[in-house]
Specification:
By secondary structure, the chain is α/β, with parallel strands linked by helices. The protein folds into 2 domains: 202 residues, P-loop containing nucleotide triphosphate hydrolases (Rossmann fold); 170 residues, Nucleotidyltransferase, domain 5, CATH 3.30.420. It is built from 16 helices and 14 strands. An 8-stranded mixed sheet has the order 3-4-5-2-6-7-1-8, sandwiched between helices. Strands 13-12-9-10-11-14 form a 6-stranded mixed sheet, sandwiched between helices. The longest helix is centred in the C-terminal third of the chain and has 15 residues. It is elongated and about 80 Å long.
């Protein structure tokens, strides 16, 4: 029974998820972007085990020369080789390779060899040659591109050299380059996919603390979050001002940026609520932006938010709809006082003083607003990278302007 049980536990086909097993075979680089505890190391170790022993679906015959590249030699040894999900752990006893620490290499009973390398020493990859390579946590490598380039020259054996990259995503030049390269297969595994093998309190605790934040989206959701170099907002400023709950709010504004049309292809209706605290700071309270709504629907949505927060004012841009905007609110929400606002300057000029308040620490987010924050950090002089209208941003700018800025976009003087 013991041998049968050990064989059962070592059968990756039984334990693997679809993202770890069912994949296209048309790739040179398999880039696995995974959250913390998502099973990246196990997948990398199982892939190396498969190619070293010639096991389907990873290989039809053994690969003889494999490179193992980690952030440091210690990382290669303690995570990739000796770790709980490392190479020694995933092999059944009769198939397990012999680890030779003094030579920094593994040798399988069938003659396959894997050699360990540190990304701190790219030059060590000059000379050796390989059929395949496993690159772990490449998003953390200090000499990432130099190490990667040296490895490419070394991948010159066999009919079809391949490499697997397992990493928590970070918007580094190397990872962006890999994603853009032809021949790269990208799979993503958020932490929640591996919840059955994690401590019950681990995921709940981290989600409560970091859910929706940039760090949480990167480390738990496996999202690659890149900032535009010319963006008006910086994520660091947003993260620095994030709070769990606001102080007493003295005044609340709900701002609406209506779309010019309705239907599936129309822009979203930006609906954002911002409150001013007793400390004189602005607190973003809600983002109720929605797409595909008719005028009566988005007006009703804004009015519902207004009532729920007990807001003092609803401001709505009327450049697109003019009198129609006020008429719609009069039909669906007679109890809601609507103040029309009209844009006389471009979006960038209107947004600049609001972004400055963020840099000064005078605007804070109560919780996380992922879509709004993505829009803010993708807004450059020519608008959003996608070319779409920045509806959430527009609504935010109107709300903060109404609370914190004068007519010319200058900070209001705080009294007392």
């Amino acid at each position: 029974m013991a041998p049968y049980g050990a064989q059962f536990l070592a059968d990756w086909a039984i334990w693997a998820r679809d993202d770890q097993w069912r994949f296209s075979d048309d790739w040179r680089t398999w880039l696995v972007l995974g959250g913390r505890g998502a099973g990246k190391t196990r997948l990398g170790a199982e892939w190396v085990r498969g190619i070293a022993t010639g096991r389907l679906p990873f290989a039809s015959r053994p690969s003889r020369r494999i490179a193992l590249v980690g952030e440091t030699f210690a990382a290669v040894r303690e995570v990739m080789i000796e770790g709980e999900s490392g190479l020694l752990a995933v092999h059944p006893r009769g198939e397990r390779p012999a680890w030779q620490p003094s030579r920094q290499r593994l040798e399988w009973p069938n003659g396959a060899v894997a050699q360990a390398f540190s990304a701190e020493d790219p030059e060590a990859l000059r000379g050796p040659q390989f059929t395949d390579a496993w690159l772990d946590e490449a998003g953390k490598w200090r000499q990432a591109e130099a190490t990667y380039d040296m490895l490419q020259f070394a991948l010159r054996l066999g009919e079809r050299p391949r490499q697997m990259v397992t990493t928590t995503p970070r918007a580094t030049p190397l990872l962006r380059r890999l994603i853009a390269e032809a021949g790269t297969l990208v799979t993503k595994a958020p932490t929640v996919l591996n919840r059955d093998f994690l401590s019950p309190g681990f995921l709940a605790g981290l989600t409560e603390r970091y859910g929706g934040t940039r760090l949480g989206r990167q480390e738990l959701e496996a999202e690659l979050i890149a900032d535009r170099p010319d963006a008006l907002w910086r994520r660091e400023a947003i993260e620095a001002g994030r709070v769990v709950r606001p102080p007493e709010i003295t005044r609340t504004v709900v701002a609406v940026d209506p779309p010019a049309s309705s239907g599936a292809g129309a822009d979203a209706c930006g609906i954002v609520a911002v409150g001013k605290g007793v400390d004189g700071l602005a607190y973003v309270l809600a983002d109720a932006t929605a797409s595909g709504l008719r005028p009566a629907e988005w007006a009703g949505r804004a009015a519902t938010l207004y009532r729920r927060l007990g807001a003092d004012r609803l401001v709505a841009e009327v450049n697109q709809g003019g009198e129609m905007v006020a008429a719609v609110f009069a039909q669906v929400a007679r109890d809601v006082p609507v103040s029309p606002v009209r844009a006389t300057r471009g979006k960038w000029l209107r947004a600049e003083p609001v972004a400055a308040l963020y840099e000064q620490g005078r605007v804070r987010h109560v919780g996380a607003f992922a879509e709004l924050e993505d829009e803010l950090c993708d807004f450059g002089p020519d608008g959003l990278s996608s070319g779409r209208s920045p509806d959430r941003l527009d609504a935010l700018v109107w709300a903060v302007t109404a609370l914190m800025l004068g007519r010319r976009g200058e900070p209001r003087v705080r009294v007392g």
